[in-house]
Amino acid sequence: MNELLRRLLARPLLLTQLVLASLFINILAMASTIYMMQVLNRYVTYGIDATLVTLTAGMVIATLVEFGFREARLVLSAAVGAEPDAMTADAAYAVMLKSRVTALERVPAGMRAEIARGVDLIEKAYNGPAVAAALDVPFALLYVAVLFFLSPVLAGITLMGVVLTLTVVIVGHELLRAPLRTTTETSASVQMLISTAVDGADTARVFNATGLLQRLWTTQRALLRSLRHRVTVTESMTQSLTAAIATLQSVAVVGVGAMLVVRGQLDIAALVGTNILAARALAPLTRMGHMAEALMRGAQALRLLRDFAKLPLEAESGAALETFQGRIEFKDLAFLHSGGSGPLFESTSFQLHPGSVLVVIGPNGSGKTTFVRLLAGLIEPTRGQILADGVDLRQIAPEWWRRQIMYQPQEPIFLPGTIRENIRVANPALDDAGLNRVVQSAGLRTFLDTTAMGFEAPVVDRGRTLSVGVRRRLALARALTTGGRLVIFDEPTEGLDTEGCAAVYGIMNNLAARGHTIVTVSHDPNILRAARMILDLGVKPVPRLSMAAAPPAPSAPAPALQTREPVHG
Fold first, then answer.
1. What are phi and psi of 540, to 5 degrees?
2. Fewest 10 Å CB contacts: which of 227, 369, 466, 474?
């Protein structure tokens, strides 16, 4: 309710229009009660048909006018949530896109799914009908006031029913708070298990882990069912209690009203009218009770989104060099994962001149991918600096920096769209000639020529339906479109056949000869033989830097890479 009030108060003019519409709706809603009372008192008593016709015509007009006000209020109510809901959804997705990667990775995947789902829950909780129902609640007192003029005693009974119903609704909301919060957390765990079963299908089967996953699934689903049952029971009890109060109120109004009729203090028409008005006084409160779960889920989702929005964002501004030459310097670089027992590497200091070729090696988990992600500006070092042409990478505008690099990750992910759109994503201005050049260089031409839709073929499921070789070629073509002076390749030949490896070697030879700085993670012996510098992250805590030759001058070409048989041992 707090969020609903905040949204209403944020737009005073709209709130005024809604309150006036609600006032007219609730006044016109009493027309049927007045009609019934007048028919009993005037037509039934005197039997004049003209009176019945007049009363009926008036009732029809009142009904049509009320309908018009209700429709107008529904349109206005929808406007209350439209802009905030759109802003909430856009802000949540913007945080996913722009938050610092290290902070985003600390949010479990299942919780990220719940946060995304929360956008729909918020829209459902604060939609037009919900706003309209909330606006009707204060007008319960209007019906009590009208009842007071008919019978103060019956008005008192109705007021008691209103207070009891409101109490039940508030208590019901509070009882739902804790189980709904736990339901969200448990649902996130269930979503993680689903993701594991799909994304890790091979792992689950080849390591006979299906039994373990099944047991975890059974446990989490049982907990989720228990929580949902608790929510259902609480909500059902709230609704049952409000219905019981409405029934008892009707019994009290009719019983006491009948006594007043017998004593001559009330007529039959007034008795029937008071019973209808008393029921109408409780109706908006009962509707709010029925909306309890939706409102609580919306409030919970909103809290999650607001906590999520607190994640630190990447800088949107910063330095941009007029020309980046490709000189990189590492000064006392160190990185420690949050919660890690020790640094992946530390005290790492050396320079790369334009045209240098650095190969990063080390066993799995030694920090190779972390090292290139630091260089790409995706994460920040725990200590030390990375300097690009003498400027700290943390001071450089991230968007500008990523236009200066050619980056091919070890596990490439692609965006929803066509092959053309995925290749050109980092350089939308790339013309068809440039597009064909990078496709030819990456060895992707044969695949495109055998694909029915060519460049317009859709990339689905983040590209996972493509073969490993095609994914790597596509990622390589995408990387080449920037023409950046710094080349960052993470295991560029992994999963490629001889032809694919030859394409990578040719690209690296060409780029090094043109003075591009190359940093690559690789255990490919042909790439290692061409390296001028080798950084071994397997040596802890300070990596070992091996120099194959004296540091090259900025214009010196790199040694040629050739396709050779792998060297073992």
1. -115, 150
2. 369
End-to-end distance of the chain based on CA atoms, in angstroms? 69
> How buried is residue 203: exposed, middle or buried, by Cβ count under 10 Å (0-12/13-18/19+)?
exposed
User: Residues, the chain, total?
Assistant: 569
Task: Give residue-wise pLDDT tens across range 403-462.
Answer: 899 999 988 888 888 999 999 988 888 899 999 999 999 888 888 888 888 889 888 888
- Distances in Å between the alpha carbon of 226 and those of 45, 233, 290, 554? 60, 10, 21, 67
Give me the residues paired with residue 328 across strands. Answer: 352, 388
Q: What is the model's pTM?
A: 0.71
Contact 419, 456 (CB under 8 A): yes
Specify burial of residue 335 (Cβ count, 10 A radius: 0-12, 13-18, 19+).
buried
Radius of gyration of the chain (CA): 35
Mapping DSSP to helix (H, G, I), strand (E, B) and coil, where does residue 392 land?
strand
399 token code pair: 């968007």
How many whole angstroms from its chain centre is CA 346?
Answer: 36
What CA–CA distance (Å, rounded) separates 102 from 340? 13
DSSP percent split of the chain into helix, strand, coil, nearest 5: 65, 10, 25
